[in-house]
Amino acid sequence: MEQEIQLSSDELVMLRNNKQSGYNYRYRRHQQWTENYELYRDNVIVNRLIQRQSVNLPLMKKTIRTIIKYVDDMPVLSFENLDNDKEAELFKNEYWKWTVELNRMDLQDIVDKRQVALFGRSFDQWQIMDGAVKMTVEDPMDFLVARFMDPFNLHSSRFLTHLHIFEPLSAMALNPMYDKTSIKNLQTYYASQQGIVKAAANQEMLIQKNQKMADMGVIDVNSPILGETYVETALHFVFRDHEQKPDGSYYDPQFFLFIEAEDMEILAKEPLEAVIGVTSDHYFRTHFPYNSWADDLERQDFWSDGIADMVRTPNKVINSWFSQMVENRTLRNFGMNYYNSSLEGFVPQTFTPTPGGWFPVPVGVNGKISDAFTNVQIQDLTDNIAEIQFVGGMVDETTGAAPILQGSPLPGRVPLGEVQFIAQQSQQRIMAMSKFYTPAWIERGTLFMKLVEAGGDKLDAVKLYKKGKNTNDLYARTVGPSDWQTQSGYRVKVWSQDEKNTQDVAKLNKLNSVKNAMPDNPKLNEIYDRKLLEYADLRPEEINEVMQFEQQKQQAMQMQAQMAAQQTGGMPGNPGAAQPSPYGNPGKPSVPAIPGPQPYETTPGQQPAASPNVKQLVLPNYAGGAR
């Protein structure tokens, strides 16, 4: 694609100013993020005063892993077709499931929540690559945003900069989107200097990003030995109010994508909508192909705190105390001594401790050994254990990671009800993160939906497999964008697993109460059984199989009862049959008895009515080739 938009030096200055402004806004968090990460990775930096021993109590890791364990699982996300086209809806949802598996979103989801706990923010990037939708959880250190924005809405920022993207210079020359003159300038620049030469601002930001890995022992993190020249590029998404077209007219206000290299060349500039694609509502004119969320939102600060910020200082304090305890035990074990430096020829030497060893000390004539040296009294510091436990308990109370959730027993004899109450309250505090976590998945679902709509021509058809109805056979169908595209489109439906389970339990309790009031109502029993199977996370086709088996079993029991009644000469519960009178008159039929409840019957071959909330997602048996 030839470059159609004129590049200017003023725009390069604008990109540099945006980068510097975003960097200054985020800089205050760099040291905190580095310390949080190092404590989580069990790495501490020693010093001569308070941290003389390289020891770390894993308070940071314990707290974050406990909290992540009780945060909600990846939410359930589905798409509802606004034209009520169930087949198209089926294909859309099956393609989403395939995308989830392709991107291993279950594992990325754990990384995503851990980043929010460690850094207070997490970012994920969405794009169409190699014919499929790709989602990647990114490092917060790679992003810059505008200072004056709504912290609740990433897309309110006037710019978003994605830094530290490395590309081989040889591959960049083959990219048709990049400006050829800019590529030649880069080639000339690198031909005149050895290695990757960075501008001062880029170098400082890269050092801050790589400091975590440098502290973990990666010695060449800032100068890796590579087989070819790599160029650091950055994606700048900038909102332009009055951008002029080559023909003299103006674009509508929208985001533009600038690709910049080494703070010195603009490689490409395009409207974001032209790069990704057009949707019916022009979504990508006002939205980035990124998503970000936090669990401790601040009204005036986008770079909010994380759980690790509450743990960092207490962890450093108890590390200091524990380091002193370790050194104290070492000093008490080996001991320290004062010696008489006025004794001529007496220069104490270090020795290797040996069981039963003898070591000469000159004391002079009529002298005593105490005249030569005496022990230094070293006090015991084991009372620090209680203080360490106090600080650790304070962290548990602050974060909600109670000891009972960590598998630690409570001190003393605690009633079972109190244990359950403490665990419940702690879990509720931790699961409050879901209030911010679930809306983030709504935005992800919307971004996926818009990305597929805009770039449908870039997606490859995929071959999907699904189990047939009432059978173990697998059926295949090749599905592409044309199979799920409809006029009105879709809407995203997301619900938290915690909220869904809570609502399901409440519904089951209500149904159970109604069922107790009407125990012989077959239709109510069927609804209750279906809800119970849905709560067990069975698929719709599995629920149908179970319900069909239950109905067949009831029909078989009914037939056995009828055959038994015929053999005894009457039908049970038949009002026309003569019944013995409760009043002792055998010659007179009694008052007709109310017939008992009859089993629920269905027409042979007819499927039981499905619950309104159950969608039978079954792919027909189409023949199709592999992608």
Q: What is the spatial order of strands in the main beta sheet?
A: 4-5-6-7-8
Helix content: 40-55%
What low-confidence regions span 5 or more consecutive residues with pLDDT below 50? 194-200, 418-423, 573-627
Mean pLDDT: 78
Structural class: alpha+beta
What is the radius of gyration computed over CA atoms, rounded to a whole number of angstroms? 36 Å
Shape: flat
Question: What's the helix count?
Answer: 17
Main pleated sheet: 5 strands, antiparallel
Query: Strand-residue fraction?
Result: 5-15%
List how many beta strands DSSP finds. Answer: 14
First and last CA, distance: 27 Å
Question: Can you lay out the helices and strands and say which pair or pack?
Answer:
Blueprint: H1 9-26, H2 30-40, H3 59-70, E1 76-81, H4 86-102, H5 105-119, E2 122-129, E3 132-138, E4 143-145, E5 159-168, H6 169-172, H7 180-191, H8 200-215, E6 230-240, E7 254-261, E8 265-271, H9 272-276, E9 290-293, H10 307-334, E10 337-339, E11 373-375, H11 384-399, H12 416-430, H13 434-454, E12 462-467, E13 474-479, H14 481-484, E14 490-495, H15 497-517, H16 522-535, H17 540-567
Antiparallel strand pairs: 1-14, 2-3, 2-9, 4-5, 5-6, 6-7, 7-8, 10-11, 12-13
